[in-house]
Amino acid sequence: MKIGLDVGSTTIKCVVMDETGNILYRSYERHYSKITEKMTELLEKVRREFSLDETAKLTVSGSAGMGISQTCGLPFVQEVYATRIAVGKLIPDADVIIELGGEDAKILFLSGGLEVRMNGSCAGGTGAFIDQMATLLNVSLEEMDSLAARYEKIYTIASRCGVFAKSDVQPLLNQGARATDISASIFAAVANQTIAGLAQGRPIRGKVVYLGGPLTFLPQLRDSFDRALKVTGVCPENSLYYVAIGAAYCGAVETKLVEALESIRKYGSTGSFLSIPPLFRNAAEYEEFCQRHAQCKAPRGDIGKYSGDAFLGVDAGSTTVKAVLLGRDAEILDSIYKSNSGNPVPIIREYLLGIDQKYPSLRISKSAVTGYGEELLKNAFGIDYGIVETVAHFTAAKHFRPNVDFVIDIGGQDMKCFKIRNGAVDNIFLNEACSSGCGSFLQTFANTLGYEIPEFAKLGLFAEHPVDLGSRCTVFMNSQVKQAQKDGATTEDISAGLSVSVVKNAIYKVIRVPNAEELGRNIVVQGGTFLNDAVLRVFEKELGVEVTRPDISGLMGAYGAALYAMGKPAAQTTLIGPEELENFKHEVKVTNCGLCSNHCRLTINIFGGNRRFIGGNRCEKPVTKRNSKSELNMVAYKMDLLASYRKSEPGPRGKIGIPMGLNLYELLPFWHSFFTSLGFEVVVSPMSDRELYLNGQSTIPSDTVCFPAKLMHGHVQALIDEGIQNIFYPCMSYNFDEGISDNHYNCPVVAYYPEVIAANMSTLEGRNLIHDYVGIHRKRDFPVKMHAILQKSFPDITVREVKRAAKAAYGEYDRYMEQVRQRGDEMIAQAEREKLPIIILSGRPYHLDPEINHGIDKLIVSLGAAVITEDIVSRRVGKVHTDVLNQWTYHARLYAAAKYVCSRPDMNLVQLVSFGCGVDAITTDEVRRILEEGDKIYTQIKIDEITNLGAVKIRLRSLFAALEP
Amino acid sequence: MAKLKYNKQGRLLFTKEMKKDYTILCPMMAPIHFRLIVNVMKNCGYHFELLSTTGPNIVQEGLKYVHNDTCYPALLVIGQFIDALHSGKYDLNKTALIITQTGGGCRASNYIHLLRKALKKAGLEQVPVISLNLSFLERNPGFQITLSMVRKFVAGVVYGDALMLLHNQTEAYEINKGNSGQKVEKWIAVLSEQFNRGRGLSLKEQRKNLNAIVQDFAAVPVRKTPKVKVGIVGEIYVKYAALGNNNLEEFLRGQDCEINVPGIMGFALFKVDNRLEDIRLYGGRPAKKFVVQKLMNYLTKMQDILIDAVKTEPKFLAPTPYTHTKSLVKDIIGYGDKMGEGWLLTAEMMELTEQGYENIVCAQPFGCLPNHICGKGMIHKIKAVDERSNIVPIDYDPSATRVNQENRIKLMLAVAREKLPNQKGNINQQNK
């Protein structure tokens, strides 16, 4: 008898077969992290059913089975390997296997050279991810599947990780996109991620087999893979059990079952885990804590007895919608706090209708809305004011503590923290795409362990040994929690540990301060997550301060909005009345904007009475149908100027292709002129767009490299598709020395990415990619060295020609830079005349690409500022002193620009940072230091393949709000 | 506390006065090498102390004081320093820190600055930081790298490489567990004692010592059984430091593997050779070339004596000469790729495959910039050139879980075991 046991991250699978391989028994269950219990239960059952008294060939597999089998001395086989064994026997003609599990994704190439691949340290695109998305949409997995079947359009969603995807899905929900389309888009994203992340350039063809839970239970997910791969894959019988079957096949050693059971049982009770001191030593300490915080109360009023003017504040957050109704003395008459179930519109409609019917003597005279759903709700109901969240929260916090220095708000999906300086919102910290640890994080865990969140949080208060879980990605926190459970941590310990993790994440990852002094003494904490006493306690302990938590912690945004509305001068409210509410309609249409190269996917919401709202746009064009007036936008100017180098006359030496990305952005004038002078027709790859990116995506070997680098695969592919034989993409350790730094390197990725292209793009076969090492920083050596390089491909080129071409190239580069500088100076002068605020939008030259910057430059211009790039002002100061080694050409400009900005009251700096940019981990801190020493606000915007412009807008609007006198 | 002196840019200097009674803390990387090198430093009149601390507080301190997106080695090294300074074990007014600085285009050149930022954040600004480099960055009056010191350093690296290599090749097969480990301890003691007397450094003495070491390891009784042979390459810190790679070597030994970790000498040769390559690729002064070439020749000679010594015993596999290692990547990746481990990392993977250690763990910190290129970026091509290679890239950072890493390594091992002669099915019955 052979027993295969597959203990995965969420489920446990068991297969029993006889010696000839006939399956006698199989089972599939979720184990809810009770691994040892489930294992013993299953084995006992199998033993009884098959009357196995003595031994059986038991083999364990699966990620969660690894530790147990090791300690208990049970035979173990790695799960991917087990799958291969099973497929080899059951489906010998299979070519490729795609298996999705709870936290793993795997691809096995069987024919044509065996290769097995597993997802790396990012858990995007796995079962846990799909679970998270279903929770976000508030549907079951089955419902999600049937929704996906009825899709019409696919949106672009990053499936790299759940946190990323949430920030893509949330704006879609807020814009009113259909659940059918979102569900299908999520599946498409999973397929995309798996293929791109794991295939890494190897084509998936032939007989494709789908295995594992998600692919078995979700037919629409299979369809998404079919569509993406252009194949029809099969999901065989027993598709859930392949690992267990494979493990059973591997069975070679007879194991004494009674002994095995005994040691598994023992395993459960051994082990130790890292813990921290309890949150409260005793009940008295907790009592004192509660009393202290109970003092911070907002005044209440009796709505039943109230008549006359009232003020409405609405906060449409990422997962919840909150509303507060204030009386004329700022007393709270009524409030709601609800999950938005993906669409806040019906909730607010119902609320307003209810108020109207129940309290006819009350009249809402002013109203304001804040949060992600601000614009949607403002347009839907004619709410008077829309304000940025930071301002709403500050308004509310000030009401409780007029001398507040620091506000931290932890909500469902996001974390907002800001400092207050001179009575205005200053330094803002928001959680970035990859920092987990918000409210929904705790909620997910509470639910997995079978608790509601308030109950779960209470458990942690008196935990004896809170687990030290570190702070990590939600998905991997799962395995960490499981590990702790195995090691004997109680649910209480885990609850407390998760609260600690949330707080540590906030303090050390998002705010990044080591102590409370840097925050100021008067700290107000708010947001739903701080209603959790455990989180509050840990926060106070970690920083060593007592903070203020208002009793309406979760309502502060709405409260602030209401206070804001109340403070505005009297005017006729635009809020729609009862009749309009009764006849309220809400329709959604999805379309693509064709007015510029961004091709924003627009969601058009149509309400009754000519009210409508367009979401998803980056600029005002689709709303006003007009081109904005002549803008002061250096990004746009540079793009126009560079466009003139895209054209080239046919030349006697034929065509040479240049992929337009990374350092070639700024060097295009150089190389264009160089090759034109040599008699080439220069063909530049087209403007980046989503499709261009996807065409090269499958050849990216490292999925954690920055997006601008990934985009290069698409550009090279585009040149190949155009039939270009010779492509020029040189490696460059060094860039020009602009005299403002200690060295003049390129970053490692920019310097050597051509090597990755050459090694991983098999479509280059038969073509000539010139990717030699080139040193343009040594002007005198360059022609000779370059000649040697070119001669390998074009033997007839002479040194003389190269010398002439080099001269032209250096000249053209200088001319281009000079032109840019002049226009930049003019724009600054014009902005000065028009008294416009100037934003120095700084990053790298390749951040000009609209596919990379997502039109953030336009967003800033639409907020009423001039956009100037860092290279314009960096030349005005020269070399600046830095606390870091100033050794990269592009980054030296950043430091210099930051220094210059400090000398100008009308300038502020916004730094664009590509996700995954290691160098910017150093530059951002240094730029912040320079700016803060100059009394300036530092604003950083992280951008990636997909960027949540909602969060970007909050940042920028808060910056502008702080600048207002 | 010594008088604090600053240079023009405001950098706190390590003064001659400090040299007298300051303890200089040094982070741990490769244990065998670093223990030898620390002895060299003590011998040169510095009060060195090697930090062999472990434990979760190191990561905690790192997360607290270093930008969390910074590479994992920086986080660990700085965390280890702060953890030590906070431990109460050291007089904070009589302690200095030392850290290497390569001056290359990678983030690593900035570790020292991140360390100073961290010290500032932690209120430990009086602690001077010494930069250890060969690029003439950051000079200190109380700390000078002399030619004789460099020579001793190189000797330390040669001995370290020898001991590491012999230990790895013997340990997996030794009949009496612990034999080869004891040999390592014995030789560290013997060599340190020699260093203290100014011995063991001349070419002749090195040859003699190395031969004796090789003979000594050859005398360890072994039983050769087929084992999975695993090579470890990667970013230099996580490649060698157990703190950085979750005790990777120990884990692999537990999985009944023989491991091979290419030595530090190759890295030193690579870093020097880069300067020659720069001149070759982009042009440069002949005088500079002359000096660098001299150094290159010296290091090559040092590697040669190591190889010669190992070759005296046929049972050991000697490292391949640098020139051969370099030739392996001729058509794979350019010699201009010099940041971080650069082309050397790719070359080591090729070399290991060629030597029969085709099962490779490529260890890198999460998001390591150079390794996007020379590590993960080259796996596809290496496989195309030599089909035997069985490489698994593993990312290390504070939030990666050990289970996850080990599961992936086990997958690589499962594939490896299949190819093993007389394999007993692909099940690892744990040898506890």
TrEMBL record, chain A:
GO terms for molecular function: iron-sulfur cluster binding; metal ion binding. InterPro entries: ATPase_BadF, ATPase_NBD, CoA_activase_DUF2229, CoA_E_activase_dom, Dehydratase_Activator_Redct. CDD domains: ASKHA_NBD_O66634-like_rpt1 (cd24034), ASKHA_NBD_O66634-like_rpt2 (cd24035). Residues 655-873 form the DUF2229 domain. Its cofactor is [4Fe-4S] cluster. Keywords: Iron, Iron-sulfur, Metal-binding. Residues 3-249, 312-565 form the ATPase BadF/BadG/BcrA/BcrD type domain. NCBIfam families: CoA_E_activ. This is 2-hydroxyglutaryl-CoA dehydratase. It comes from Caproicibacter fermentans.
From TrEMBL, chain B:
InterPro entries: Dehydratase_Activator_Redct (IPR051805). This is 2-hydroxyglutaryl-CoA dehydratase, D-component. It comes from Caproicibacter fermentans.
